[in-house]
Amino acid sequence: MFKLCPCGSLKEFSICCHPLISGQTIASTALELMKSRYSAYVSHDVEYLVATWHPDFRSPDLAESITHSFEHTQWLGLNIVATAEHGNESYVEFVAKYLDTQSQQQHSLHERSHFIKLHGSWYYTSGIKPQVGRNDLCPCGSMKKYKKCCGK
């Protein structure tokens, strides 16, 4: 029996994100890194998340901050909205749904992540939350207006 990868690829975890997370291979694109980082959040792999964060953008308490984020978060799914790659710089816009296990409320994290390729490896640097208009389609992929979906 196999386990599907949390990144949503519909591939087996052992042949999708696990080789990246376990260090057997490196991401060839920022999108691959983004998906593997999502899978690492799902599996609570702090070491991989810190290792794939660009060294110049790591805070001293990064590992502790990531570990703390695991406490009441159950990740439910990842939707890639858009990607853009320009040489050694790339952006991946995504929506990740999660459950706050303390309040039992579902939420969405919508982010445009920035990645830099350094010495042949992709690294996450930062992310911004894109502005979505109330009448725009919700970025979660529901095909509903934002104000009737995640913007409530």
Automatic annotation (TrEMBL):
Pfam families associated with the record: SEC-C, YchJ_M-like
Highest taxon in the source lineage: Bacteria
InterPro entries with a match to the protein in the record: NTF2-like_dom_sf, SEC_C_motif, YchJ-like_M
Domain YchJ-like middle NTF2-like stretches: 29-127
Name of the featured protein: SEC-C domain-containing protein
Lineage start: Bacteria, Pseudomonadati, Pseudomonadota, Gammaproteobacteria, Enterobacterales
